[in-house]
Backbone:
């Protein structure tokens, strides 16, 4: 019996639902506090700032799976959101949707919010001359704040969480200026920035420091800048000047990315830019859209080879391992196992080999083998493969692997009941 599309979708939905339940435990949103339950508050004392700073940390879905125990994650630093606010919650949820394991537009990432409050202007503004004190109290503290992020916060996070070496700084308005500024000042620690409606007109000196930093940068990086056309004239005008100035001078180590929002206000540009900016930054490792190539086996395999090569080539830049993510590859196999792709089912063993090579000893490859055998109607071999997957997952204490294996075994029993075996 051929696998039913509904059965496989139920399997994937059960696994993804379990993933969300185990890692997010998200409570219903309320009007008073739009929060995510594993959005954890914490604090760190900063020697550079001589004060304690409060932060909030959101883990990606799947962080606690034993399957993912060796995975490391990029860090997204959000500069101007307070714990418990709707904008921050929406950032977390949007990032989790974009990083879905089955059709990922971005890799899973840790999102870390730094609360600001009374120190906001001080922290986000560069001094008139780099390294010199600001002539006005409460301003020009960007160098100390950059030291806090690069030399205190990031090592602190690395000592407690499985972070990769890739960090993105997300800033809006005045903190968008800081994001643009730190990109050139700390290329050793900051891989990319989202400068959303940045106040580049803060001072001529700060603007020039942003340009000089980008031009002097040697490490590869990505600079995303966005603004709304209906948020006045000063910010959009300065962003257009920035793009023009950058275009006149080579920036060989930096990919400049930008987006315009014709009908967006100042605040709306922040929300739109966060999603679009992450997509633009991570486009080299984007894995969504394979369904469009599931017409003929040769077409599909050529696209798979292209995606693999592109992903492996780009992955090191983002601190990712040079191999296709496990859940992406396994999902491709389970998708091809549905009746709609009967002519492509002979490609499933290619995906199983991919899993066996990239993730030796994991439960994913025998589970994949089980689906390959099931589409060939060899139920005994399929049952044996699923049993192997369950055994490996049980030894690892991996509930997701056990779930995949057991649901595959249930499909074998159903196939036997309908005489779908040879």
Residues:
């Amino acid at each position: 019996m051929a696998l039913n599309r509904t059965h496989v979708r139920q399997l994937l939905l059960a696994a993804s639902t379990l993933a969300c339940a185990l890692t997010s435990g998200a409570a219903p949103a309320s009007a008073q506090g739009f929060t995510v339950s594993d959005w954890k508050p914490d604090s760190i004392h900063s020697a550079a700032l001589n004060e304690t700073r409060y932060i909030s940390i959101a883990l990606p879905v799947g962080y606690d799976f034993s399957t993912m125990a060796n995975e490391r994650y990029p860090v997204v630093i959000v500069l101007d959101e307070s714990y418990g606010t709707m904008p921050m919650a929406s950032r977390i949820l949007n990032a989790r949707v974009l990083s879905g394991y089955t059709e990922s537009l971005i890799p899973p990432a840790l999102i870390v919010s730094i609360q600001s409050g009374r120190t906001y202007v001080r922290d986000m503004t560069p001094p008139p001359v780099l390294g010199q004190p600001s002539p006005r109290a409460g301003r020009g503290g960007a160098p100390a704040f950059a030291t806090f992020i690069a030399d205190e916060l990031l090592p602190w996070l690395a000592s407690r969480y499985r972070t990769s070496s890739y960090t993105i700084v997300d800033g809006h308005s005045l903190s968008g200026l800081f994001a643009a500024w730190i990109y050139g000042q700390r290329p050793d620690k900051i891989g990319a920035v989202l400068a959303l409606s940045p106040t580049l007109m803060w001072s001529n000196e700060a603007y020039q420091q942003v340009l000089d930093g980008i031009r002097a940068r040697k490490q590869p990086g990505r600079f995303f800048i966005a603004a709304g056309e209906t948020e006045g004239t000063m910010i959009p005008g300065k962003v257009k000047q920035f793009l023009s100035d950058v275009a006149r001078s080579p920036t060989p180590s930096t990919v400049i990315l930008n987006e315009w929002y014709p009908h967006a206000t100042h605040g709306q540009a922040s929300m739109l830019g966060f999603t679009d900016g992450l997509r633009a930054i991570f486009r080299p490792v984007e894995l969504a859209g394979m369904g469009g190539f599931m017409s003929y086996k040769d077409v599909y395999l050529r696209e798979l080879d292209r995606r693999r090569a592109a992903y492996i080539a780009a992955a090191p830049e983002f601190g990712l391992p040079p191999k296709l993510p496990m859940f992406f590859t396994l999902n491709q196999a389970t998708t091809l196992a549905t009746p709609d792709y009967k002519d492509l089912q002979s490609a499933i063993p290619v995906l199983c080999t991919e899993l066996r090579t990239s993730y030796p000893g994991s439960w994913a490859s025998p589970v994949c083998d089980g689906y390959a055998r099931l589409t060939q109607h060899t139920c005994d071999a399929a049952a044996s493969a699923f049993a192997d997957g369950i055994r490996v997952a049980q030894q690892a204490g991996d509930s997701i692997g056990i779930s995949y294996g057991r649901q595959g075994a249930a499909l074998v029993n159903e196939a036997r009941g309908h005489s779908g075996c040879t």
Summary: Strands lie at 39-46, 51-58, 73-78, 110-114, 163-172, 192-196, 221-228, 254-261. The domain at 33-285 is CATH 3.40.50.1820 (Rossmann fold).
